[in-house]
Specification:
This protein is of the alpha/beta class. It has 13 helices and 16 strands. Strand 7, helix 6 and strand 8 form a beta-alpha-beta unit. The radius of gyration is 24 Å and the shape is globular. It starts with a helix and ends with a helix. The relative contact order is 0.14.
């Protein structure tokens, strides 16, 4: 017991020195106990001797259920609304007005809000200001009407400019952009817009996106939200915008960590391969995966794939995994939680089987299924249904052969993949709107599984 206690004390002491050496400053929000929790679990704590050494590591980041301080921080928001001609269809603009009124009513007198609109030009009916005179905001919202084309990049840039004017300590800043169509004026390339959203996020302003109906570019809006550290919402029915914007307000108001990143540093002889469903960047000898903002009660799960040498029996350190994030209010430096993954190389297949984590295998199967189904949907968009069918067959084979094949989540994925394959076969009998709805439904489900759970 004494040896164990001494080891624990020594570990905590040197971890403390390591954090202090980085100049980390705890803000009131983080010091009050809002630190994120990181859970790291390999799919199997063992590897077979002289096997290919491929191992998946589940990394889960969990936010506290509630804000650790009684009062939420003030918000600095830009509501960027598409008012192009198509917003007049199906009562979209009426529902957007209703949702915007709701947002104004939920904001407090210390919050800041700007309303930006865009069609073929960008307008700022209300420049950023404190939400004191609510009636002023309500009158502007009532005066919005649909007309013209879709200058999405211009709306995004103006929303950012407005928020940046009052980007300062004490506020949580975010651009909330809504569109129902394809960007057809200004910058329209989704990679450029995603990179721009990422740059905004790095400067302290998150970006969330809402896509209404069946004609917007879901790949664009999802990539902007992912790069911008915010959330993406697919609104299939105009009346659902109210609930979605209400949820976005709740998430923004309870943000507990910004710029959340997982840093994976493989040990000597080990190699980082990928994180299915996530992009990553190189930082020295480490791989860095961005997870965006986390709000109270949220969780993010990713599956890192590593290659480990298996030529020698026994335990070996595989990788150091670090959690890094910023305080959303002050932007103060990273709080670190570091774990070392240790795997054991064994030569007994029965020992290997006994050390398998079925829950991790279940999550791995679901994540990999969603990555492949997204690829199948892309092939359908390109008109290559044969390739999409082959991908779905691959999904079904992988799910059936998974050690967690009987788990409820895996069974659900099988049904989903099978249903999508059947719908692809029947596409010739579907109306264009049905095809668009099918595609957006599948991609949004995959987005939620990969980026919001």
């Amino acid at each position: 017991m004494k040896t164990k206690s001494l080891k624990t004390f020594t570990t905590l002491y040197f971890t403390f020195l390591y954090i202090m050496s980085l100049g980390v400053v705890l803000s009131p929000l983080l010091a009050a106990g809002s630190a994120l929790n990181m859970d790291v679990r390999p799919e199997n704590s063992t590897l077979l001797y002289r096997s290919d050494g491929t191992s998946s590591i589940q990394i889960r980041v969990i936010a506290p259920d509630v804000l650790p301080i009684p009062d939420r921080p003030p918000l600095n928001l830009a509501l960027v609304l598409d008012r192009s001609g198509s917003m007049g269809d199906e009562g979209k603009m009426d529902h957007v007005r209703q949702a915007a009124h709701m947002l104004v009513n939920r904001l407090g007198p210390h919050d800041r809000l700007t309303i930006v609109t865009y069609n073929h030009r960008v307008e700022v009916p209300i420049a950023t200001r404190r939400v004191g005179d609510r009636q002023l905001f309500h009158r502007v919202i009532d005066g919005l009407y649909p007309d013209g084309r879709t200058y999405l990049s211009g709306g995004l840039e103006e929303g950012f400019r407005q928020v940046r004017k009052y980007r300062k300590k004490g506020f949580v800043s975010r651009v909330i952009l809504l569109s129902d169509g394809l960007a057809n004026i200004g910058v329209t390339d989704f990679r450029q817009l995603s990179q721009r959203a990422s740059a905004m996020y790095e400067s302290g302003v998150a970006v969330s996106t809402f896509g209404m109906g069946y004609d917007f570019d879901e790949n664009l809006l999802a990539s902007m939200a992912t790069g911008g550290g915010g959330s993406y919402y697919y609104i299939s029915r105009p009346e659902d915008i109210l609930a979605a914007l209400n949820k976005e307000f709740d998430l923004t108001a309870t943000t507990v960590a910004s710029g959340v990143e997982i840093i994976i540093r493989p040990m000597e002889g080990c190699r980082f391969q990928s994180v299915p469903g996530h992009g990553w960047k190189r930082e020295g000898g480490s791989a860095v995966i961005g997870l965006g903002d986390l709000s109270a009660g949220e969780m993010r799960t990713l599956m890192a794939q590593l290659e480990v040498p298996t030529g020698s029996l026994g335990d070996q350190d595989v990788a150091d995994i670090t959690l890094r994030y910023r305080d959303p209010v002050t932007g103060k430096g990273a709080i670190l939680d570091r774990r070392t993954v240790v795997l054991s190389v064994v030569d007994d297949p029965s020992v290997h089987r006994e050390n398998m984590d079925i829950k991790v295998q279940e999550k791995k199967a679901v994540i990999e299924s969603n990555v492949l189904l997204n690829e199948a949907a892309r092939k359908v968009d390109e008109g290559d249904r044969d390739s999409a069918r082959k991908i779905i067959q691959k999904v079904m084979g992988a799910l059936k052969s998974s050690p967690a094949a009987s788990a409820p989540a895996v069974q659900e994925e099988m049904e989903r993949a099978q249903e999508y394959g059947g719908r692809i076969d029947g596409m010739d009998d579907m109306a264009p709107a049905e095809v668009k709805e099918m595609q957006k439904d599948l991609k949004y489900r995959s987005y939620q599984e990969l980026h919001q759970q």
